[in-house]
Amino acid sequence: MRPVGDQSTQSSAEPLEFREATKRYPGSNRPAVDGLSLEVPAGEICVLVGPSGCGKTTAMRMVNRMIDMTAGDILLGGRSVNARKPAELRRDIGYVIQQVGLFPHRSIGENIATVPGLLGWDKARISARVKELIELVGLDQEMRTRYPVQLSGGQQQRVGVARALAADPAVMLMDEPFGAIDPINRDRLQDEFLRLQALVRKTIVFVTHDIDEAIKMGDRIAILREGGLLAQYGTPAEILANPADDFVARFVGADRGLKRLSLTTLGELELPKPNGHSPRLRLPDTMTARDALSALLTDGGGGALVVEDDGSVRGIATIDALGRLLTDASVPEHAVAAPAPEPSEDDA
Amino acid sequence: MIAALAAAAGPVIPDFGGGTGPSCVRDNGTFCMGWFRDNWSDIFVPALGQHVKLVAIAIGVGFVISSALALLAHSHHWTEKPITVITGVLYTIPSLALFQLLVPITKLSLLTAEIALVSYTLLILFRNMLEGLRGVPADVRDAARGMGLTDRQIFWKVELPLALPAIVAGLRIATVTIISLATVAAFVINEGLGKPIFDAIQSNVFKTEILAAGGLAVAMALLADGALVLVQRGLTPWARARTR
Fold first, then answer.
1. Could you tell me the pTM of the whole model?
2. What would the pLDDT profile of A133-157 be if each residue is shown by its tens digit?
3. When you count CB atoms within 10 A of the terminal residue's CB, does the N or C end of chain A come out lower?
4. Nearest-CA distance from B20 to chain A in Å?
């Protein structure tokens, strides 16, 4: 993990609550979002996921009043978003969209400085903050003077995230932020973002149509169905273990058992000692149980040594042992319920 | 020298007071440099100054009116059609016809000339301004709004800067067009580079004077165009940033 300046540790986050939030467009007989109620604890990622037309983006955009709801309420830090002027409210909420929307006529540094500038920070403070954020999202300081058109898609989205974090918002809204990135870079950006989130601990509403991304990114997942109805709200493990109905079961997919395995890493499992066994295959303990199972099946099923970062052997993994996890609901649940590591541990 | 070869029976050109080889002027040579040099300060400098004034007023007034129209069409979409139709009709009226229509009302005045010239700038400037403002990508506008920029801030900090290349492109076309068109203004007022051209036509088509005035108009157009390119580069350094 990169060293980070002092300021980012003073990170703010507020809880977010949807209360029967409803959006009805005139001339449409069905609401776009229908009585949505859910609570997002401060510092957690809530993923809104569902098929197109389920109102997930509309629900997200009601938080910063890009779309005004027609009934119900949304509380940010216990205060109704409707009680605040839209422009002022939005400066307090990070906003990341799929197409990034960087200002083409402004340098990367100027783009990141947008909201601090609107809030009237002094130059020195803005400059220090921009420097810190460029580092935080893993870009080179020399990018600061470049223009967006000179960056790759992945770099642009990193700038988008930095820009959204600039004024240390209480909440972040992210609308398919990695949707336009190729699969390999998307995976990397997702990992990077999760590491970043472990540091900044923002309350995040994350919209995607991709259930795998939802499972990976979400502390909680809200599955919406057409007509803007909430089908199920829970942790990824809860949803994968106990889909509320056929719609959810179909949406998460027939391979939901395997998906549950992706919630657990080998390091989180109790593994038997090798006892003289010495299989050829070695797997890092950071690997997910799902990827390990795949590796074992590909290898021919002889079992694998699970090794830690320093090379020491943690234990042995077999197809049978991993297969048993599929029927044991408690394991991934436990793995996910555990609190994310503190930034201090992460840095160590 | 061509003049030396020209037939003596050519048209009789009045000597415009030049101390050049009078044969060139008398024989109406293609271009009598001496005559041009001798009359530079008496004929061409004032004409050039008047021409710049005619163009500057037309572009200045046209820019102000077009800006107002573009802002109107930008904020009230329904006004775009009528504005386009009206400025389009103004654009298509032949200038000489427009002068004929205006002279009874506004007389042979600078006002008459400028009304005509300004009319021709409107469509070009208005269309380019509106295209520029509309051309701001939707995601950029959405991100600006989502970050808490007010409508006014979005206009000044995002839409206007991003529209600059289109606006300057419009100014370039309009300026070059008006520099050329302003020569016709000599029909109603005896000013600008059109004046020496008309004088020359009335003096048995004195080639040197026509070429000189025409050449100056062309030079002025090229210079103005080049200056506007420099202005645009200065205002929009981002537009030249190299893509990866």
1. 0.81
2. 999 999 999 999 999 999 999 999 9
3. C
4. 56
